[in-house]
Amino acid sequence: MSFPTQDEGVTPFEEQAAKWCCLLAEDALDLSEQREFDAWICADPRHEEAFEKMVLVWQGADAIAEMPGFLSLRAQALTAMEEGQPDWHEPMPKRFVYMGAGFAAAVMLLAVLTGLVFIGNQSEIYTTGIGERRVVSLEDGSKLSLDAASSVEVTYSRERRALSIERGRAKFDVASDPLRPFIVTAGDKTVVAIGTAFSVELLPQQIRVFLYEGHVAVLDEAEATDLADASKLLADGSLSDRVFMPGQELILSTKARTATIAPGDVERSLSWEGGRLSFIDEPLSLAIERVNRTSDTPIVLGDAAAGRLIINGEFDAGDTAAFVSGVASLYPVRVSADEKKIVISSAKLKLPEK
Question: What is the pLDDT of residue 157?
Answer without folding.
Answer: 86
